[in-house]
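To the wet lab folks,

You asked to see what we're planning to order before we commit. Fair enough. Below is the target structure as tokens, and below that is the sequence we designed to fit it. If anything looks off to you, flag it before the synthesis order goes out.
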């Protein structure tokens, strides 16, 4: 093995290990038995806007489609996560990793709108050969953090990696969050969803039925212990009958089915999946769980807190080096508070840029940054030093020599500490036992 391949192998191994705890993950499978192909897709995410929608086409020799997804890119637009067209062509999208390569497809067409691009493939293509021909026009390295799979009615499939297209026709196939061209089976099996799916197919004779597909989807689904989130949408596509079966929020007791042809006859329309299923307390808890990514007010509050901590740190340091000291705190105490403030500022930046922290196990493990992983202990640091700092500064600031404005910024500083502790508690950042 060359040094370059060895490096890629080690990097993929590391990423796959961390993917088990850190990334939005999905899984899928296809089963072809006696000329009938079933495709199951688990969309694992903490998004709260799951949708299913049906699109007719006005073009000649094109196909109507059904899509499922949850990531809104505009108020009226959701990016497809999986889907099927009237020709029986199905696709699924999964998060993955591939090392970036420069200028591989510099002469190809650029993808400027991922939702339009993904929709157009299903509107225009009937088989995986059509898909391959269509995709080869584009720089599909645009999707550097995704792997796609397209399956047609015959059971043939095409895996679309950022830099490579792989064709296959195995009767049974399972895929999760990895690119097969750079991931061997030993590494792939570190992903629980993939391992569960392949083991299930080894233990059971495959049937192209909704009952068998449901059991397999359930085996590969996720329900995370910390917040109850996990598999948001399970979509099972019958490519022969053109029926899509939907399960919602890793609950396999209630099934809702749609006949694609019948739904298209009603015209283009979109449904909120949560509204077509019975009340789901776990999903309601997910919706009620506020984070900086889904609550702009929290985002603004965290930014303001970071700004105030930086301002307070500067003011404290400035007040201490003045010739006529305005505070009785020692330089050591001031440096300690300023250092803590900048640790908290850095952690606020981490919270604002890593939404996974609010959902995955404590301490959070980032897939490639040891600094972000280490920052997971910041809430415990603040919890441990909060009362000693409050008592120490209170005793020091009783002196009449301390200016009122200095006392005021200390009150503000410690109020921010207290507010952050409340936030850390609400977000479960102390819950290492989960």
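Sequence we intend to order:
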């Amino acid at each position: 093995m060359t040094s370059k391949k060895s490096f890629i192998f080690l990097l993929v191994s590391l990423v796959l290990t961390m993917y088990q705890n850190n990334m939005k993950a999905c899984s899928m499978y296809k089963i072809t038995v006696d000329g009938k192909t079933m495709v199951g897709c688990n969309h694992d995410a903490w998004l709260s806007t799951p949708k299913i929608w049906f699109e007719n086409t006005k073009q000649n020799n094109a196909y109507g489609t059904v899509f499922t997804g949850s990531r809104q890119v505009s108020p009226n637009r959701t990016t497809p996560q999986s889907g099927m067209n009237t020709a029986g062509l199905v696709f699924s999208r999964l998060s993955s990793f591939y090392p970036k390569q420069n200028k591989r497809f510099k002469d190809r067409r650029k993808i400027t709108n991922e939702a339009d691009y993904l929709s157009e493939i299903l509107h225009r293509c009937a088989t995986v050969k059509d898909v391959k021909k269509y995709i080869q026009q584009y720089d599909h390295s645009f999707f550097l953090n995704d792997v796609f799979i397209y399956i047609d009615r015959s059971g043939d499939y095409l895996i679309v990696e950022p830099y490579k297209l792989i064709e296959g026709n195995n009767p049974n196939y399972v895929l999760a969050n990895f690119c097969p061209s750079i991931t061997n089976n030993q590494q792939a099996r570190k992903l629980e969803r993939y391992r569960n799916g392949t083991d299930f197919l080894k233990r059971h004779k495959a049937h192209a039925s909704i009952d068998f597909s449901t059991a397999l989807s359930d085996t590969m689904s996720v329900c995370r212990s910390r917040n109850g989130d996990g598999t948001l949408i399970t979509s099972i596509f019958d490519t022969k009958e053109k029926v899509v079966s939907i399960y919602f929020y890793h609950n396999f007791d209630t099934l809702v089915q749609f006949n694609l042809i019948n739904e298209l006859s009603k015209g283009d329309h979109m449904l909120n999946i949560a509204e077509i299923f019975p009340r789901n307390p776990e999903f309601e808890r997910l919706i009620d769980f506020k984070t900086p990514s889904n609550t702009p007010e929290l985002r603004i509050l965290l930014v303001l807190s970071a700004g105030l901590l930086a301002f307070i740190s500067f003011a404290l340091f400035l007040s201490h080096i003045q010739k006529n000291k305005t505070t009785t705190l020692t330089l050591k105490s001031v440096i300690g508070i300023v250092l803590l403030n900048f640790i908290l500022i850095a952690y606020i930046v981490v919270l604002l840029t890593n939404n996974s922290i609010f959902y995955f196990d404590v301490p959070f493990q980032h897939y490639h940054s040891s600094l972000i992983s280490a920052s997971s202990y910041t809430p415990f640091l603040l919890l441990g030093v909060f009362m000693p700092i409050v008592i120490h500064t209170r005793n020091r600031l009783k002196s009449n020599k301390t200016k009122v404005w200095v006392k005021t910024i200390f009150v503000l500083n410690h109020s921010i500490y207290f507010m952050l502790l409340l936030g850390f508690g609400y977000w479960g950042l102390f819950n290492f036992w989960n």
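Structural context that might help your review: The chain has two domains: 3-288, 296-426. The chain has a mean pLDDT of 89.

Thanks,
Computational group
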